C-alpha cells in the first residue's frame, strides 16, 4: 500500500498532464480520502488515456464496472473479479412486468403527447410560405427529428448504462461523462445538420432537375441552426433526467429515452419552422450564410472540449458511422414524406407522421437500452449469452428464455392502446385532414403494430451482433433503429393512405 506522499508522487509521475480543475478542487479534502481518491481516479484515467492513444481502447470499456475492465488490476487475484461480477449481478435492477410497465407508461404517454404536438405543429406550418415554396424542408423534417435518436437517445442510453453499472457514483467520473458527451453531441449535431441539408438539396434536386442556390443556403442555415440549438437544449434536459432518475431510484433505461423523445420532436420542429420562415422572410443569402458560418465555427471548440474527456474521445473519432448512416436513412423517409405531402389527396399524412415515427423509435430505444445494460452486466465484449447464440428467429425476441423478452412483450402491448389515445387526442383537437373511421383506425393500427414488431426484432438481432463484434450498442444501435423507425413509419403510413384512397375511404378535408 502506497503512503500518502508516495501516492501523490505516483499521480504526477504516471500522469503529468492529468491534474485539472476537478482534481485541484479535491485537494482540500482530508488527507486520508485524498490518497485513496487520487490513486483510484488517476490510475483509471491514465489507463484510459493510454489505451486510447495506443489504439487498444474499445467503446465498451468506459461503461463497464471497474472490476470488468480488461487490463485494470490484472495482477490481483481472480476472486476479486468473481466478487465484482457477483456484486454487479446483485446490483442489476430487478423488475416485475407490472413495475416495468408502470415505469415506462408515464414517460411513454408524455413522449406520445410530444409527438402529437409535433404533428399538430407540422400540420400548421406546412401552409407557411417557406414550406410551400421550399418543399425540400419536408426532407429535413425526419432527418432533424431523427437527431433525438442519433444523439439524445444515444446519450440517454450511454448515461443510463453508466448509472446502472456505477460509473456515475463518483462526482469526477460523473462530470467527465456529462461534459464530454455534451460536447461530443454538439459536434455531431452541427455536422449532421449540415449533411442533412446537403442530402435534402440533392434529393430535392435530382427528381425535379432544378437547383436554386438561395434555397440551398437557406436549407443549410436552417438545418445547422436547428440541430445546434435543439441539441443543446435537449442535452441539458437529458442530463437532468438521468441525474434525477438516479436520485429517485428509478431505472433510467425505462424513462430516459422516452423523455428525450417527448421534448425532442416538438422543440426541433418548432425551431426549424421559426428559423426557416424567418430566414425566408429576410430572403438575403448573406444573412443565411452568416448564420450557418457562425454555428459551424463553434465546432472546433466543442471538438477540443470533447477530446479532453476519455469517455467521449474515442467516440469523437469512431462514432460517426451510425449517426451519418442514420441521417441518410431518415432522409429517404423525408423524401417519401415530401412526395406524399405534395399529393393533395394524401394531405392527412402530415399530422400522423411524427406520431407513428416517434412512438416506434421510443419503444425500440427502450428495448435497445435495456438489452445493452444487460450485456454490460453479464457478458464481456465479443461474447453473447447462450440464449442469443445461433441463428436469429423472431420468436426469440418475444418468447425466448432471455431476460428481455418480457420487456419486448410489454412494449408491443403498449402500441395499440397508446396509438388509440393519441389518435383520439388529434381528433379532439380537430387537427389533421382525415376522419377517424373504423377502416382508417384498423389500417393505421395495423401499420403501427407491424412497424414496432419489426423494430423490436431488428433491435434484438442488432444489439447482440454489435456486442459480439466489440462495439458498444449504447453508442451504435439506437441511431440505426430510430432511423429505421422513421423510414418504416413513413413508408407504412404512405402505403396505408394510398390503400385507404384506393378502397374509397377518402376524407381529405377534415381540419381545413
UniProtKB/TrEMBL annotation:
Keywords attached to this entry: Cell membrane, Ion transport, Magnesium, Membrane, Repeat, Transmembrane, Transmembrane helix, Transport
Coiled-coil residue spans: none
Main location: membrane
Transmembrane segments: 20-42, 98-122, 187-207, 213-243, 255-275, 287-305, 317-337, 349-366, 410-426, 438-459, 480-503
Domain SLC41A/MgtE integral membrane: 141-274, 353-495
Region called Disordered, residue ranges: 53-92
Protein's cellular compartments: Cell membrane; Membrane
Catalytic activity: Co(2+)(in) = Co(2+)(out); Mg(2+)(in) = Mg(2+)(out); Fe(2+)(in) = Fe(2+)(out); Ni(2+)(in) = Ni(2+)(out)
One GO MF term attached to the UniProt entry: inorganic cation transmembrane transporter activity
Residue stretches of biased makeup (Acidic residues): 72-84
Gene3D superfamilies, per the entry: SLC41 divalent cation transporters, integral membrane domain
Pfam families linked: MgtE
Function: Acts as a magnesium transporter.
Protein name: Solute carrier family 41 member
Amino acid at each position: 500500500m502506497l503512503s500518502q506522499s508516495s501516492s501523490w508522487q505516483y499521480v504526477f509521475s504516471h500522469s503529468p498532464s492529468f491534474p485539472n480543475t476537478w482534481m485541484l478542487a479535491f485537494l482540500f479534502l482530508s488527507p486520508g480520502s485524498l490518497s485513496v481518491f487520487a490513486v483510484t481516479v488517476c490510475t483509471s484515467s491514465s489507463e484510459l488515456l493510454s489505451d486510447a492513444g495506443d489504439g487498444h481502447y474499445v467503446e465498451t470499456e468506459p461503461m463497464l464496472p471497474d472490476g470488468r475492465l480488461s487490463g485494470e488490476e490484472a495482477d490481483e487475484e481472480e476472486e476479486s473479479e468473481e466478487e465484482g461480477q457477483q456484486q454487479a449481478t446483485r446490483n442489476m435492477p430487478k423488475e416485475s412486468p407490472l413495475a416495468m410497465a408502470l415505469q415506462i407508461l408515464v414517460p411513454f404517454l408524455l413522449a406520445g403527447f410530444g409527438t402529437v404536438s409535433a404533428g399538430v405543429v407540422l400540420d400548421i406550418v406546412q401552409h407557411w410560405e417557406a414550406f410551400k415554396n421550399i418543399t425540400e424542408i419536408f426532407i429535413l423534417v425526419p432527418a432533424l427529428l431523427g437527431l433525438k435518436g442519433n444523439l439524445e437517445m444515444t446519450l440517454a442510453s450511454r448515461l443510463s448504462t453508466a448509472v446502472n453499472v456505477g460509473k456515475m457514483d463518483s462526482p469526477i467520473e460523473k462530470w467527465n461523462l456529462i461534459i464530454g458527451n455534451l460536447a461530443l453531441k454538439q459536434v455531431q449535431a452541427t455536422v449532421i445538420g449540415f449533411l442533412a441539408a446537403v442530402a435534402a438539396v440533392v434529393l430535392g434536386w435530382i427528381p425535379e432537375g432544378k437547383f436554386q442556390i438561395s434555397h440551398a443556403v437557406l436549407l443549410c442555415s436552417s438545418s445547422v441552426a436547428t440541430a445546434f440549438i435543439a441539441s443543446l437544449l435537449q442535452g441539458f434536459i437529458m442530463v437532468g433526467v438521468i441525474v434525477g432518475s438516479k436520485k429517485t431510484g428509478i431505472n433510467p433505461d425505462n424513462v430516459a429515452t422516452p423523455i428525450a423523445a417527448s421534448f425532442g420532436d416538438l422543440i426541433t420542429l418548432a425551431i426549424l419552422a421559426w428559423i426557416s420562415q424567418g430566414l425566408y422572410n429576410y430572403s438575403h443569402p448573406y444573412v443565411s450564410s452568416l448564420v450557418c458560418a457562425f454555428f459551424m465555427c463553434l465546432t472546433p471548440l466543442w471538438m477540443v472540449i470533447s477530446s479532453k474527456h476519455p469517455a467521449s474521445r474515442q467516440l469523437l473519432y469512431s462514432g460517426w458511422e451510425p449517426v451519418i448512416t442514420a441521417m441518410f436513412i431518415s432522409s429517404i423517409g423525408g423524401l417519401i414524406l415530401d412526395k406524399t405531402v405534395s399529393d393533395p389527396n394524401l394531405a392527412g399524412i402530415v399530422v400522423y407522421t411524427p406520431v407513428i415515427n416517434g412512438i416506434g423509435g421510443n419503444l425500440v430505444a427502450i428495448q435497445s437500452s435495456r438489452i445493452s445494460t444487460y450485456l454490460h452486466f453479464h457478458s464481456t465484449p465479443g461474447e453473447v449469452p447462450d440464449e442469443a447464440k445461433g441463428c436469429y428467429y423472431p420468436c426469440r425476441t418475444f418468447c425466448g428464455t432471455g431476460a428481455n423478452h418480457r420487456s419486448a412483450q410489454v412494449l408491443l402491448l403498449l402500441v395499440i392502446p397508446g396509438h388509440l389515445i393519441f389518435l383520439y387526442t388529434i381528433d379532439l383537437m380537430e387537427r389533421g385532414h382525415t376522419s377517424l373511421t373504423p377502416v382508417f383506425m384498423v389500417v393505421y393500427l395495423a401499420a403501427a403494430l407491424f412497424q414496432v414488431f419489426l423494430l423490436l426484432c431488428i433491435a434484438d438481432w442488432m444489439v447482440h451482433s454489435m456486442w459480439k463484434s466489440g462495439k458498444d450498442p449504447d453508442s451504435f444501435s439506437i441511431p440505426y433503429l430510430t432511423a429505421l423507425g422513421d423510414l418504416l413509419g413513413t413508408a407504412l403510413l404512405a402505403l396505408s393512405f394510398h390503400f385507404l384512397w384506393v378502397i374509397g375511404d377518402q376524407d381529405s378535408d377534415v381540419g381545413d
